[in-house]
Amino acid sequence: QVQIVESGGGLVQPGGSLRLSCAASGSTFSIGFIDWYRQAPGKQREWVAGINRGGSTSYADSVKGRFTISGDNAKNTVYLQMNLLKPEDTAVYYCKSSSYAGLAIWGQGTQVTVSS
User: Fold this and answer.
1) Which residues are bridge partners to 33 per DSSP?
2) pLDDT tens-digit readout, 87-108
């Protein structure tokens, strides 16, 4: 079984930066993909960015050019570097691991608030 723990959220001013971490433990050898999602109040959860075990990345149009997803296999951790943050980036950010068999494990989420 895989366990996922997110960290790094907080309050930041518009234009600022945050780095979120997604630490995996347990049967990490089974993980094929890690994705970040976010859910703002009153809205549906939306996909933000993803990375596969080979290091290929993809991004939602709304964050492309501002967010960067990266992985450290030695630490079993995936990062989401968020720059040029906007108030509309305010949300709870969730990390999801997926095995090649399609088993998905979600973390508990970390709050990001962008406000002056």
Assistant:
1) 52, 98
2) 999 999 999 999 988 899 999 9
